């Protein structure tokens, strides 16, 4: 039985990816705590002010960071599956395309590109179907928000063609 315990102890190694996540949690907690400390407090009779909630969230993120470090050190995170990079690249390309096209091509076309490339990232191979479908869906969303709700969304040539 003692051999069994030593073999399982030698198999466990610190999880370095979890340590990176913990560092990220500590960084976000630090930025939030620093920002909350610079909020102006309004003279009030209560101790709860505009910085209370960010301080609580920063404390929670700090606690999650400590917990993540402890779990990573013990090596108790479950084994992760192999990460597929190609779908992430398609989705990030869609987001970048939307940001670049939003002012030039308008909401419908830019969001249609995002729709098509995200669908491609999730496995839909036929861009010639998903791109026009995404543009139509996005145009309907634009029309609802812009015309019915009177909210301002970037209009492009397609939107100017109809409205």
Automatic annotation (TrEMBL):
InterPro entries: DUF1468. Signal peptide: none annotated. Residues 20-154 form the DUF1468 domain. The chain crosses the membrane at residues 16-36, 48-69, 89-115, 127-145. It comes from the Bacteria. The keyword Membrane applies. Keywords: Membrane, Transmembrane, Transmembrane helix. This is Tripartite tricarboxylate transporter TctB family protein. It comes from Rhizobium vallis. The lineage of its organism: Bacteria, Pseudomonadati, Pseudomonadota, Alphaproteobacteria, Hyphomicrobiales.
């Amino acid at each position: 039985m003692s051999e069994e315990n030593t073999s399982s102890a030698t198999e466990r190694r610190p999880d370095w990816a979890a340590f990176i996540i913990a560092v990220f949690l500590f960084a976000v907690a630090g930025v939030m705590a620093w920002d909350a400390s610079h909020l102006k407090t309004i003279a009030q009779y209560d101790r709860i002010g505009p910085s209370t909630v960010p301080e609580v969230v920063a404390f929670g993120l700090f606690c999650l960071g400590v917990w993540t470090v402890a779990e990573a050190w013990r090596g108790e995170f479950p084994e992760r599956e192999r990460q597929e990079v190609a779908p992430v690249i398609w989705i990030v390309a869609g987001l970048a395309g939307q940001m670049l096209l939003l002012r030039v091509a308008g909401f419908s076309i830019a969001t249609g590109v995002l729709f098509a490339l995200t669908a491609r990232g999730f496995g839909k191979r036929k861009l010639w179907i998903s791109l026009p479908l995404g543009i139509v869906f996005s145009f309907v969303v634009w029309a609802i928000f812009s015309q019915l709700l009177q909210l301002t969304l970037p209009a492009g040539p397609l939107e100017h063609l109809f409205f």
